[in-house]
Amino acid sequence: MLTAEQFLAAQKSNISTLFDLSQKAFEGVEKLVELNLQVAKATLDEASQHARAVLSVKDAQELLSLQASLLQPVAEKAAAYGRHLYDIASGTSAELSRLTEGQLADAQQKFMAVVDTAVKNAPAGTENAVVLVKSAVAAANNAFDTVQKAAKQAADVAEANIQAMTSTAVKASQAAAANVKAPRRAA
C-alpha cells in the first residue's frame, strides 16, 4: 500500500518528468524555427542573386545554361533541408523516448515492489492467483520490450529510406542538369 510520502514523491517525479519532456519538446521546436529562419534568409538572398543573373542574360542559350546551373543546387538544398528536419525530429524523439523510458522503468520497478509486497502478504491458498499475477506482469513487460524494439527497427528503416530518397533526388537533379547543359543535335 502506498503511503502519503510515497504518493507525494511519485507526483513530484511525474511533474519533474513532465517539465523535462516539455523542455525537450520546446528545444526541438526552437531548432525547427531556427532552421526555417536560416532557410528563409538564404532563399531570399538566392532569389535576389538569381533575379540579377536573369536580368543580365544576353540570349536564350545563356538563360538555359543559367537555369541548368541552378537546378542541381536547389535539389541538393531541398534534400539537405529534409535531412535537417529529420535530424531535428529524430533527435527530439530520441530525447523524449529516453526520458519516458527512464520514467517507465522506474514505474515498473515500483509496481513490481508492490506486487512482491502483495505476494508476501497474500493469504494461504492464493498461490495460483499470485503465480497468475506474476505471469501477467512478466508478459506485459515482455510485450512492451518487443514493441520498443520494433519501434526502433521501424525508425532505423525510415532513416535508411530517407537517406536513399535523398540520394536518388540529388542524382536525378544532377542528371536533369546535365541533360539541359548538353547541346542538342539537329535532326
The global form is elongated
Largest sheet: number of strands, sense, barrel closure: none
* Cα separation of the termini: 90 Å
* Average predicted confidence as pLDDT: 80
Note poorly predicted spans: none
* Beta-strand content bin: under 5%
Helices and strands: which structural class?
Answer: mainly alpha
What is the total number of structural domains?
Answer: 1
Question: Layout of SSEs?
Answer:
Blueprint: H1 4-55, H2 60-120, H3 127-181
Helix pairs in contact: 1-2, 2-3
Structural features:
187 residues; mainly alpha; elongated; 3 helices; 0% strand
Description:
- The chain is mostly helical and 187 residues long.
- The protein has one domain.
- It contains three helices and no strands.
- The chain is elongated, with a radius of gyration of 29 Å.
- The chain starts with a helix and ends in a 6-residue tail after the last helix.
In short:
The chain is mainly α and 187 residues long.
